[in-house]
């Protein structure tokens, strides 16, 4: 059986998701250059996270 997430963990996940969406909206409002840069950083961050996940497994 899967463990239930605590309410603090659920709240934190929601707030991080909301911050990510607000950052995307902010980048779009600043123009295409900011949006492209943000997308590149998100991709690089995801790749780095996967690499570290494999290294420290």
**Which structural class should the secondary elements be placed in?**
mainly alpha
The secondary-structure element order is HH
The number of distinct β-strands equals 0
- Number of helices, counting only DSSP H or I runs of 4 residues or more: 2
Portion in beta strands: under 5%
Span of the ends, CA to CA: 23 Å
Task: Write a brief structural summary.
This protein has 57 residues and is mainly α.
What do you see in this structure?
The chain is an all-alpha fold. It has a domain at 32-57. 84% of the residues lie in helices and 0% in strands. It has two helices and no strands. The protein has helices at residues 7-30, 32-55. Helix 1 (7-30) runs antiparallel to helix 2. It is flat. The two termini are 23 Å apart. The model has no long low-confidence stretch (mean pLDDT 91).
Task: Give a quick set of tags describing it.
single chain; 57 residues; mainly alpha; 2 helices; 84% helix; 0% strand; flat
SSE map:
Elements: H1 7-30, H2 32-55
């Amino acid at each position: 059986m899967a463990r239930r997430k605590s309410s603090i963990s659920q709240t934190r996940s929601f707030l991080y998701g909301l911050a990510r969406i607000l950052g995307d909206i902010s980048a779009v409002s600043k123009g295409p250059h900011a949006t492209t840069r943000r997308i590149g950083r998100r991709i690089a961050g995801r790749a780095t996270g996967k690499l570290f996940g494999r290294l420290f497994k």
